[in-house]
Amino acid sequence: MTDDFRLLQFADNPVVWAILGLALFCYVLQFNLILCRIDEDWKIQVKTWLKVLPVLLSALPLLGLLGTIAGLLTTFRSMAISGSLDQQMLLGSGIADALITTQLGLITVIPGLLLQSLIHFRHQEKSI
After folding, report:
1. Is residue 5 assigned to a domain?
2. Residue 78's pLDDT band (cuts 50, 70, 90)
3. How do residues 54-75 score in pLDDT, each as one tens digit?
4. Which domain does 44 fall in, by range?
5. What is the average pLDDT across 25-47?
6. Looking at the domain assignment, is residue 53 inside a domain?
7. Contacts of the segment 9-13: beta carbons below 8 A, 24+ positions apart
8. How many domains does the chain have?
């Protein structure tokens, strides 16, 4: 593994795609709510999405943990099957591959929570 980090090296991991897809959906929805004109329809939409968005955003780090567990299981399974390979190198690269999903889940949830707070604040401000 090189010092240069590239997300494309994890492109075959379906959990990475699930995290990126869910995060993109949440971000597009949140930016749409932030940039829309504030009227009665906006208030109704925001009231609905403020109930759903926390659930969607909380799934991001959980998906990251799922990817970590799956990656660790794959690593240990590979170690058990191939006893002749350099297990230290296999273990090091396998754990790095497994932990990338946790990192990605945490990195993607933080901006989403900040945007949700902004939407919540604007909704409270316009409801008064």
Report:
1. no
2. confident
3. 999 999 999 999 999 988 888 8
4. 12-127
5. 93
6. yes
7. 10/97, 10/100, 10/101, 13/67, 13/71, 13/97, 13/100, 13/101
8. 1
